[in-house]
Amino acid sequence: MASLTVMRLHLWVVLRDTSSDQPSSSPRRMISSQSGGDASQSPPLSSWSNASNLGDMVTISFGLYSDKPRDNCPKFLTKSQLGAMIITESKVLKGLNLENKEREISDLYDLVRNCQDCPLYKLAKNPVAGAGSVDTEVMFIGEGPGEKEDELGLPFVGKAGKLLDEMLESIGLKRGDVYIANVVKHRPPGNRDPKPEEIEACWPHLMRQIKIIKPKLIVCLGRHSLARFLPDIGPISAVHGRAFKKKNQAYMALYHPAVGLYHGGMRDTLFKDFAKIKIALKKI
Ligand code: SF4
Fold first, then answer.
1. Which domains does the chain have, with CATH numbers?
2. What's the CA-to-centroid distance between 182 and ligand 1, angstroms?
3. Is the CB of 187 under 6 A from ligand 1?
4. Which of 87, 167, 180, 283 has the greatest count of CB atoms below 10 A from its CB?
5. Is 244 helix (H, G, I), strand (E, B) or coil?
């Protein structure tokens, strides 16, 4: 393996124009790193991840060369070097992807803050766009903000939110592990149900949110959320705790946590249904 120590590993990030299918012939920026034959000695990920600020799509390529005469250059990488390269590439991609997602979701929040596409914004104190991890497999979608949510600008922070936290904990998850949103982003006055035209007006925001998060599983919390995503599936009383697939997206129907507050006998059902989220995730 002595010959491998003369190898240099170069990593470069080539920014790709979203307007073109071809990689830019003159990358706007090139990031290069070297290590003496051992890919695991590469610089820390943080030193590369700034690249995501420079473009919407990136292509990452790896190249190898030797500064010794060609005859002395080994033709193949060792298995561990190749493995390290692959792991490094996937980490870099994940880092870039996460930064993009965070930027996009923040743009969406700005949009919601200024939205006047339905009358709900007029009486609301704060928009409740959504909260949680953009790097999650599960996205919970409820109906609309209540009084407490309206006050704080965060989803599920009242009593129903407390129960949601308990249920998340029961399957080993925390708020920060999932993303939570609603079908309408401003509070319907007096906690009334959102009207179909309000849900319709707010739909593009939710669609954009889903596109950014790309969850493996969308959990519909309550009948309004379920009826909008799976209108033909039947009443929530018949399908709660079940998973469905529509156009390559997996969904699960769950009662809204508020049901557990108003009907104490339903708490068990809620927890049992919640446990099926883990099972569904394993199967997707
Ligand atoms: S509820 Fe949705 S559509 Fe209506 S004003 Fe708020 S963000 Fe806009």
1. 2-102 (no CATH), 115-283 (3.40.470.10)
2. 11
3. no
4. 180
5. strand
